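EI: anyone free to look at a 161-residue chain?
SC: sure, send it
EI:
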Amino acid sequence: MKEKNNSKKWFEKKDFSKAKNEIEPLPEFYKYKEKAETLEKKFVNIFKNNSFIMYGAGGGGLFFLKAFCEKYNLYPKVILDKEGEKHPNKDFFEVHNLKISKPENETFKRFPQNIPIVISIAKKELQEEIKNNLQLLGFKNLYLISEDIFDYWYLKLWDAI
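SC: here you go
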């Protein structure tokens, strides 16, 4: 018991602010930075004057919201996810006044087929499946985010902590 209290006191006294600066960023951070910044510029140009939809409310959607939407103050009209309003991340998105809807929802079907849709799911095989399903519904402007860009955003957000 005494040992536990001593370690707690040590932890409280320790200054961890310098530790973050001592850790070298991973090479991937620099490798994908240019690619991510290019994609962000492209998205800003497309979304600044247009409504858009985000597909995916999981981890990829959270990263897209934190790394892109908050940075540029550009938010989707709606978020699509197969879990809809029952998604566990629902509260996080509601803070930004964003609703999660199922893709089969009638509201989604009323959007024009040329509305840009960002598929914010990190798993490549799921991205392709969703892209194909949206194309079958007639949607044309579909944007995928590659895993390396999600990795970059993750490292960037981690660095900001």
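EI: The first strand starts at residue 53 and ends at 55.
SC: 👍
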